[in-house]
DNA sequence: TATCTATTTAGAAATATTTCTAAATAGATT
DNA sequence: AATCTATTTAGAAATATTTCTAAATAGATA
């Protein structure tokens, strides 16, 4: 929900890698899990955090849950960085 | 040094608040510590992490150490966010 | 030189996070 | 209905992080 949550979620390399995988389109939890050396349960845990922070959304189809990237959530982080980073070419919401 | 380190450092609200304080100019460790309900030792620990990640630099003057903001380090984060966030108005280095 | 002041370091306790295995859920297929 | 498949949840173990107190450092002042 807040900036801390977003940052904390992005701090873990695995979660950034999941986000990168989803850049090419929606994937099932299984597909995501099999690209990492982690159990499905662990990947499920990371997906939950990503979902809670709003970085991904899910849609169900048959037996599968497809995860998709939601890029709008990056806005708050950009806004904060531009504020402290002293840049001024970033439009306000 | 890497993106994970930067993100991890920014994930903690206290450290973002320290960065925000430094936006108005260099401050001593003591000045920073007295604006938070934390011991000097704890603030020193956070300053060390911020320094390691390159967000701040220090200069010594007499008995004091002044900490200053180094905003160039935000670039890598911006680059990553623009890549996954699908924005394309951010110049490459 | 002795002491004061600002800050850091060491080490321990408290807390939080990540990962695993095993079990649970729930929808699809036979 | 029984079973299979994809995924999540629960709970525990391993690991990492934050915070504190007490001690150390090191430069400044008396």
UniProtKB/TrEMBL annotation, chains A, B:
Keyword Transcription regulation: yes
InterPro entries with a match to the protein in the record: ArsR-like_HTH, HTH_ArsR_DNA-bd_dom, HTH_MetalResp_TranReg, SdpR-like_repress, WH-like_DNA-bd_sf, WH_DNA-bd_sf
Superkingdom: Bacteria
Keyword set, alphabetical order: DNA-binding, Transcription, Transcription regulation
Domain HTH arsR-type: 1-89
PROSITE patterns named among the record's database cross-references: HTH_ARSR_2
Protein name per its UniProtKB record: Autorepressor SdpR family transcription factor
